[in-house]
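Try this one yourself first.
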């Protein structure tokens, strides 16, 4: 008598035509503007208005446009790039560290007014930053910090959303038993945070850092009202200044339009590099707390 062994049927991967079409449409929605930016950066001023917008012209002018962008007005674009890098890195790094400290404090320490203060933070998340720009300018003008780099860096350090995110992440990733063990070993509170907790918070910290970096890098309204010196402009305000000059002069400054587009292309390269560098921390943070132990 022979017995037959039934082999388990291999499940075929499920495919959804609707989902595939939706993903392709979403990819096109996000990638098409970037493709247009690359194409437009390779054209002269005349080709921008006389050729098809979503394809290259016969004269590939990208490298010449890059050279002109970097040398325009005695290389002021490089100064704007350096200013943007200074504002973004300082504000993002400091803001992410403050958010991690505050989120850890709200999550692991019990003190009078903890819940009330956290409710205030939640309310601050709902307040648009543009609504606070004018009051912030008046305060900084009174203390003599307007038209200085501190006028951009200090307001950008405040990140209520980052604090909320870090508090949730601390509750999911930092066990109380680990903190008690560190205290029994004689570690101070700051040593526990910087040598134990901060390592566990690396994915969440990188997420807040990336969000703050993108926000400060793309910030336009705050530098616009805080800064008067063109030498202190970030890229956003500097390119808007070139665009305004081109619009005011009409055809006389038409050559500035390709420089504005090329400068926009150059300005997103550091963000792409930062995203690729922080992506592994960000992806690992997305699944933190998904498995109950």
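Now uncover the answer:
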């Amino acid at each position: 008598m022979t017995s037959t062994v039934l082999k388990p049927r291999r499940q075929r991967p499920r495919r959804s035509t609707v989902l595939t079409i939706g993903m392709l449409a979403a990819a096109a929605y996000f990638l098409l503007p970037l493709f247009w930016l690359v194409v437009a950066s390779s054209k002269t001023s005349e080709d921008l208005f006389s050729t098809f917008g979503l394809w290259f012209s016969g004269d590939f002018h990208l490298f010449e446009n890059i050279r002109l962008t970097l040398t325009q007005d005695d290389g002021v674009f490089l100064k704007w790039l350096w200013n943007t890098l200074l504002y973004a890195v300082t504000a993002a790094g400091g803001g992410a560290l403050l958010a991690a400290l505050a989120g850890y404090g709200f999550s692991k320490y019990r003190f009078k007014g903890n819940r009330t203060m956290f409710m205030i933070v939640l309310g601050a998340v709902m307040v648009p930053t543009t609504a606070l720009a004018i009051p912030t300018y008046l305060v900084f003008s009174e203390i003599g910090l307007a038209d200085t780099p501190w006028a951009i860096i200090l307001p950008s350090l405040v990140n209520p959303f980052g604090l909320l995110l870090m508090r949730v992440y601390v509750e999911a990733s930092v066990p109380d038993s680990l903190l008690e063990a560190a205290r029994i070993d004689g570690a101070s509170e700051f040593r526990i945070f910087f040598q134990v907790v901060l390592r566990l918070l690396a994915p969440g910290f990188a997420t807040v850092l990336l969000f703050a970096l993108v926000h400060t890098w793309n910030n336009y309204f705050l530098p616009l009202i805080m800064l008067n010196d063109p030498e202190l402009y970030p890229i956003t305000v500097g390119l808007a200044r070139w665009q305004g000059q081109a619009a005011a002069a009409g055809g006389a400054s038409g050559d500035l339009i390709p420089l504005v587009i090329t400068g926009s292309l150059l300005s997103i390269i550091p963000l792409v590099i930062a995203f690729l560098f922080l992506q592994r921390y960000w992806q690992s943070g997305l699944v933190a707390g998904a498995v109950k132990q």
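Discussion: The first helix runs from residue 17 to 41. The chain is about 70% helix and 0% strand.
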